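pasting for the record
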Amino acid sequence: MRFLESIINMKLNNIRRDELLGLARQYGIPLTPAEAESICQELRGQNYDLFNPEQRKGVIKRLELIVGSQRASQIEQLFLSLTGR
């Protein structure tokens, strides 16, 4: 299972704007290209671990500054569903 967690975290830490926009559309989370770019810049190279509750909360707090609390909450729910937590 740790291998799968590593792959998911690697993808998160290297996601591109177009990939993020596609995922947002797929899961019904409205994002503008500018917001997606800001999120990618925030995540890129930070080595966040979505499976660590404290790090996940930190990521969500940073995303709130970009997209607001409602959409950050939607993203958190998506993280939780994808990680099985």
